Amino acid sequence: MVLSYREALNQAMCEEMRRDSRIFLIGEEVGHYQGAFKVSKGFVEEFGPQRVVDTPITEAGFTGLAIGAAMAGLHPIVELMTMNFGILALDQIVNNAAKIHYMSGGQLSVPIVIRGPGSAAHQLGAQHSQSLEAWFCHVPGLKVIAPATPHDAKGLLKSAIRDNNPVIFLEAQLLYGTKGDVGDGEYTIPIGVAEVKRAGHDATIVAYSKMLLLALEAADHLSREGIEVEVIDPRTLKPLDLHTIVASVKKTGRLVIVEEGWRFCGLGAQIAESVYAAAFDYLDAPIQRVTGEDVPMPYSRPLEDAAIPDKARVIEAVKSLCGTQ
Amino acid sequence: MPTMDRVDLLHLYRQMLLIRRFEEKSAEMYALAKIAGFLHLYIGEEAIAVGAIAALRPDDYAISAYRDHGHCLARGSDPGHVMAELFGKATGLCQGKGGSMHLVDAPRRFMGGYAIVGGHIPLATGLAFATKYQQLDLVTVCFFGEGAIPSGQAHEALNLAALWKLPVIFVCENNRYGMGTSSERAIALYADVAGTARSYGIMAERVDGMDVLAVRDVMRKVVEQARAGQGPFFIEAMTYRFMGHSMSDPAHGHYRTKAEVEEHRKRDPLLLLKQTILSNNLGAETDFVQLEREVGDVVTAAVKFADDSPFPTPSALYTDVMREE
Ligand SMILES: Cc1ncc(C[n+]2csc(CCOP(=O)(O)OP(=O)(O)O)c2C)c(N)n1
Ligand SMILES: [Mg+2]
């Protein structure tokens, strides 16, 4: 069955909510408005306002409320209208959700999913275009997932909902309309398992979320020039499936990491450090990073384009490693 | 006032005395460096925790800020396990991972002490949201200092609790200071802190927080109403902390005078209840001597238990970061 990314998320939540009455969806505009990006289409009609809870514009308040509800045995899904607004809920996420299990010596747990779109869309300006995954990945006690395809989005969201830990689930506005086969029937995808999205032997690209699509386009292009790139999507950013990445690097000897977020202290820096530690002797060249620029996102179209990784830069990075430039 | 019962009043006195002697001993242990970090004493405010918790059922939820020894002990936690937590021992309530500010006793529905001012108030609304969702007739009591009142998280939580008519009782422990800042210098509505809640349509009352019977009476009334679905409620309990803000702050000094502290000590909650018991011929001096002896033994045993207990093994560092199953 071919579904959009948006529909895949809808189906994942719907299947899980039918299965388990402890699960409820809470956030701004999730009910009557059907979700700011229509991810919860049809939900309030099927599950009622008790389980599809429209909130006032109070991210700290309703995220904290959901964490408290999780402590009492419910399994909330918090929809942040966009991840940018999650900054207002960071105290709740970092100081409460991530730490309560540890601080209580394992007595309490917080089974919660906090999901919503991150990263840039089209010219939304500096406050609505951020890729904040590195912030969340930095915090012990959180799992972080950033799927790129409808198939992965559905299977991983179902796993996130069943997990007994706080999970940050990062979507992307520009992915909502993308389509892909999700097969028929129910399935889950385990958290913490990467997938080789394209096999190759000349170089490895690690890319996730929207950047995976870019990496696959670049790989197509490079293939026409005779360079066969292996593309790996970690899918889960924390815990990271380093094993799959390292196995590929040992084969190709070259690694490019693509991320939309800011370069300084970005996720790619951590992945590179881990790969250096695990496979330094296998590398034929220094690891290359293609990242967002270290600037607030500008509005103007050409400036925005310049701030975000594009296909040409990924191609250039691979070629520089392969010595064909 | 309902008829007074000797056993009942002596029990309340014993609970307050336990908190008082436990904390005096904690201060001694701090001086001996058996306890480190932050230690915030509740001395002077015991009537609030004891009176409020006396109005609860064992399965109701309670949650508080970092000045939490009193609430935890009033909830019935074992003094030995609480002291062991302050000592950072493996036998502590949270296996030494929480410390003074983060006591949790899940079986007693004490859902924790939290050290980010205002940050646990949304959690309390979430506990109440959960019990309503689960159609249980439980209430949640949330203790916090008046210093949390101007915080955004408190306002967001008050609004959500009122909006969704949640069975939560907010108990503001108004001891007139947040560290060294008097409420006149921090809260626009300092003369009527309860008015903050009223502005959200929450029924709010002020009570003499030095009078354990008055606290229990008002709590019994609102707990019953909240249980019947008429919540939320807000109680402003007027009190005074006799000691410094934490161990690094003397009882009086730059921000308040010795005379002011002495004045408030005249209304020591233990003294007030003792006078009530004596003047109503419900007890004699010998009863208090007996209680002192009993409580003294409990505290001595708690210290011995904590002292004799082992520190956590190094491997405990990595457990409870994530919930495994
Ligand atoms: C968000 C936040 N800011 C600052 C602090 C530092 N701090 C700890 S306690 C405190 C005063 C709080 O006063 P109040 O809420 O009245 O509680 P009390 O100590 O009087 O019981 C402050 C400023 C903190 N813990 N959290
Ligand atoms: Mg105070």
What this model shows, in words?
With 325 residues, chain A is α/β, with parallel strands linked by helices. Chain A folds into two domains: 180 residues, Thiamin diphosphate (ThDP)-binding fold, Pyr/PP domains (Rossmann fold); 128 residues, 3-Layer(aba) Sandwich (Rossmann fold). Chain A contains twelve helices and 14 strands. In chain A, the strands form three sheets. A seven-stranded mixed β-sheet of chain A has the order 3-2-4-5-7-6-12, with helices on both faces. Chain A has a five-stranded mixed β-sheet with strand order 9-11-10-13-14, with helices on both faces. Chain B has 325 residues and is of the alpha/beta class. Chain B has a single domain, classed as Thiamin diphosphate (ThDP)-binding fold, Pyr/PP domains (Rossmann fold, 3-Layer(aba) Sandwich). Helices cover 42% and strands 11% of the residues of chain B. The model of chain B has no long low-confidence stretch (mean pLDDT 97). The interface between A and B is large, with 40 and 44 residues. The site of thiamine diphosphate has 14 residues of chain B, from β5. The site of magnesium ion has 6 residues of chain B, from β5.
The number of helical runs of chain A is: 12
From the spread of the alpha carbons, the general shape of chain A counts as globular
Judged by helices, strands and strand pairing, the structural class of chain B is: alpha/beta
Query: What is the CATH superfamily of the largest domain in chain A?
Result: Thiamin diphosphate (ThDP)-binding fold, Pyr/PP domains
Strand tally of chain B is: 8
Number of domains of chain A: 2
The CATH superfamily of chain B bears the name: Thiamin diphosphate (ThDP)-binding fold, Pyr/PP domains
Write the layout of secondary structure elements.
The complex is a heterodimer of chains A (325) and B (325).
Chain A: E1 2-4, H1 5-19, E2 23-27, H2 43-47, E3 52-54, H3 59-71, E4 75-79, H4 90-97, H5 100-103, E5 112-118, H6 133-137, E6 143-145, H7 150-162, E7 166-172, E8 179-181, E9 195-198, E10 203-207, H8 210-224, E11 229-233, E12 236-238, H9 242-252, E13 255-262, H10 267-279, E14 288-292, H11 301-307, H12 311-322
Parallel strand pairs in A: 2-3, 2-4, 4-5, 5-7, 6-7, 10-11, 10-13, 13-14
Antiparallel strand pairs in A: 1-8, 6-12, 9-11
Chain B: H1 6-31, H2 46-53, E1 61-64, H3 69-74, H4 79-86, E2 110-113, H5 121-133, E3 140-145, H6 152-163, E4 168-174, E5 177-178, E6 181-182, H7 194-198, E7 203-208, H8 212-227, E8 233-238, H9 258-265, H10 269-279, H11 285-308
Parallel strand pairs in B: 1-2, 1-3, 3-4, 4-8, 7-8
Antiparallel strand pairs in B: 5-6
Bound molecules: thiamine diphosphate (TPP) and magnesium ion.
Magnesium ion binds next to strand 5 of chain B.
